[in-house]
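Lay summary

Proteins are chains of building blocks that fold into shapes. Our project writes down both the chain and a compact code for its shape. Here are two examples, one after the other.
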Amino acid sequence: MSRTLIRGGLVITAAEEIHADVLIDSEQVVALAATGSTVAEGWTADTVIDAMGKYVIPGGVDAHTHMELPFGGTAASDTFETGSRAAAWGGTTTIVDFAVQSVGESLRSGLDTWHAKAEGNCAVDYAFHMIMSDVTESSLKEMDLLVEEGVTSFKLFMAYPGVFYSDDGKILRAMQRGAANGGLIMMHAENGIAIDVLVEQALAAGRTDPRYHGEVRRELLEAEATHRAIKLAEVAGSPLYVVHVSAASALAELAQSRDRGLNVFGETCPQYLFLSTDNLAEPDFEGAKYVCSTPLRPKEHQAELWKGLRTNDLQVVSTDHCPFCFSGQKELGRGDFSKIPNGLPGVENRMDLLHQAVVDGHISRRRWIEIACATPARMFGLYPRKGTIAPGADADIVIYDPNATQVISTETHHMNVDYSAYEGKQVTGKSETVLSRGTVIIEQDRYLGRAGHGQYQTRETCQYLI
């Protein structure tokens, strides 16, 4: 059993900041003590890491990724191997990906397919949510079994008719089941039926460029769907987690519900905090790089989203990492924006972009750790194993240099995609050393990890309810 000692850093968790030494035995944190204290000075270890002048933070928990996701006749370009390795480079040590139930198949079949994709291939630990595309009596019963096995969250879609879409009756039934078995319902809240009408009308009028993707997926249709999802959850007595909130009006629906004491939660993503419809409007089809759903919004929405993160009306920042190469994949939509695969790369950039938000004064250091590590772990039943630095927690730890500068670029990133959504953006802060369950997997710009180090994580039910 090897022991590792991290000395002299500023340990930052959601709860506190303290100059402390961290003692790791095998895969777990076993003790913390103030740097220079008699207790800390008495510790010995096989490996000592000097963190003086650096932050010591929990590894990031990205609760929304799509590795190898089939979509629109192609598939996300990151495998579990490449995507989890890129996550490690960016200081994320746990991902929660989405297993997909296809129409006509069982939840079990979809889950088994995703286990086969991930097993033995991940550089960091991983877990699964379950996408329900076919709500039937048998799949509702399967929800109970999956919750017992540690797959404790289920995503439904108000968007993508004919693919993932569920009507209000199916959504209500799934919510009722979740209320009974403890499963958390996650919702893609956009009115897909109405959006399809607007898509058809835009294409008929010759409006085919990428920017029209953002125009047809109207803010009002995100707000309407968010409102409807909240009301259905209230009828069912079910908690609700709304994914990738992009619009100020949708956020307002969440805030009002939370003010009424409902267990309603919201996630946003870096793309909505740092990018906008200006990117979608870039000429020569460059805007296709920024096609995702929910879509990017005008810049004025960013201030409201940052405010929501400060007031806890938004609780989590995940990436919705779903990369498609510009060449050969995004280009499928030349002449028809509706055929552009929806998704952006970002699993490697999230922790650094959010640290830049600390530098810029949008959020505090502790709030950075709360929205990127602790709350996603609590929300999805991984805490306190993940998301914090405390005795008994897994030793998923990042030595973070808050003064390093880097330029985000496709030339240097490790995601398997041929562009960066943040190309040329300079950020302050960088993961210097990354430990996953006590094993150093990134050290001074060297990857020391391996496919198969990452272990599948069963999850408890949501630990974040009011």
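And here is the second example, written the same way.
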Amino acid sequence: MKILIFLFLTLFIICISSPIIANTPIPVIQIKKVLEISDEGGDKGFYFKRPANIKIAPDGSIFLIDENQFLRFDRAGKFLNNQQKKGAGPSEYAFIYNYDFLGDKIILLTGPTQKVIETDLTGKLLKEYRLEKNIGFLKVVKFSEDRIWFVGSTLRDLSKQELGKSKAEFKLGYISQEGKLVDSNIFFNEEWFLMKKAFGENVQVMMTSLVPIVYSSDKGNNLFISDSGEYKIHKVDLKKIKKTEDFSRKFERIPYEDEGVKEEKGRKDISIPAPEYYNDILKLMVYDDYLFVLTAKVEKGKGVIVDVFFKDGKYLKRFYLPLPQFKTVKDVMVTPLNIDNSFIYTIETDEEDNKVLIKYEGDFSFLK
């Protein structure tokens, strides 16, 4: 009898000491709009079409990528310059895969001829070198002082692949300062859907990503990647070039609903089979000492549920991020977002369907 009582008390203590995520009240963080940047018809020297990949430089200036534009604004929102030079000559390129800041330098990996460009914050060329060979379906996951880390697929010719659902294998590697490619033995996967589409008399095989690789990295050697539709995160130590751990939490999957597709001019929606569930993890973001996981749980008026982990994988808490444009799961997936020093940078659409860069101040003090 004493043994039974002891076991009961032990189980009771374990239960009350473990976080019961489902029954914990979820706070909605307070946000306040502090800056708004619009192009006002493009007469300011830039024009927002599909602004994306917002990042904040060490001096507080705001950068983003748009069609044929690499735009810089000062911390007060004043437009400074468009640093993209379109072409194939020195310091010229057609598009940017990704970019980041190292001290007072900007490092860019550009295409279609894959090359690394280093500039100062004003766009002045400091250094440029080409990769020894092009990487297929490239995703740059982290810039460091002497390496550019990427996941890339060796798959190049889609026409040789079977149509329908398929797995695309991506290998982790890095680009050295001389443009050499160094592979690892770490692999991730994306799930694609391949289909044929007619362009006049020509027919091409196109792909759309059903389960994309979602990633984030910190200022140290940690890389976090999710490559599954379900709630699972891989942690990679880039110094050791080794997966150190996987972590997750119990998550009630969100059934897929057809949210409708807005057709753009000159483009028609290509029908793909509807999934049973949304992908559990939509975005990963490192903030301070925490990893933010933006989930598929979205509620109108409250926003998206964000899980907070310590970087060792220990769960801390969760909160609602109440951005006005976060009404559906797709909104969270496609909306550019950056959180930097308690400020939230994002893109919204005004009543006239114009894109606007918005800066909010968020109260993240409850994390402490």
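What can we say about the second shape? Confidence is low (pLDDT under 50) at residues 1-20, 261-269.
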